[in-house]
Design goal:
5-stranded parallel sheet; 9 strands; single chain; about 170 residues; alpha/beta; about 20% strand
């Protein structure tokens, strides 16, 4: 659709406009920079009541994490951002998000290690792979039942999938 094409064009540029709030989120503005740090409740050690489904977003590309994090927040998700395999494993050892979204190539390791950890230690955790390195043959052979979104991907498709596995509740 035209809306998807426009949204995707803005997403590629690091800008997402949400007409419900009449504002544009830019990857260099204050909101997006803050999104890279994840949820503040994680850093304070105080656990606030969870109102939104929590997404653990793992990618070593800061701009992607900022942009995708801003998009997910605009659609009602609480985003925890991690940039390394080590930090995301540490997070999963003591927290249970509603969904895990990870890249496969991380600066300090393989995203498959993270997906395998999640399947063993949190088997009910939905996992989504977003990567720019997959080939069609690998997708069918290696990924099994894990949905894979190849970069660049349609953000509306990701949002539709997330709505199926962890719907946002009306407040």
């Amino acid at each position: 659709t035209a809306h998807s094409t426009t949204l995707w064009s803005l997403f590629q540029l690091g800008r997402v406009h949400d007409s419900r709030f009449g504002r544009t989120i830019d990857s260099v503005d204050r909101f997006a920079r803050a999104s890279a740090g994840g949820s503040q409740s994680r850093h304070t050690g105080v656990s606030a009541p969870q109102l939104c489904p929590q997404v653990l977003l793992v990618d070593d590309d800061v701009t992607f994490v900022q942009t995708c994090g801003a998009l997910l927040r605009l659609h009602g998700y609480d985003v925890i951002a991690e940039f390394t395999l080590r930090e995301s494993l540490r997070y999963l050892r003591s927290n249970t998000p509603d969904v895990l979204i990870t890249d496969l190539r991380l600066a300090d390791g393989d995203g498959w290690v993270l997906t395998e950890y999640a399947s063993v230690h949190q088997p009910r955790l939905p996992v989504v792979v977003i990567t720019g390195t997959a080939y069609v043959m690998e997708t069918e052979h290696c990924y099994g039942r894990i949905p894979v979104f190849l970069k660049p991907f349609d953000p509306d498709a990701l949002l539709r999938y997330l709505e199926c596995v962890c719907p946002v509740r009306e407040r």
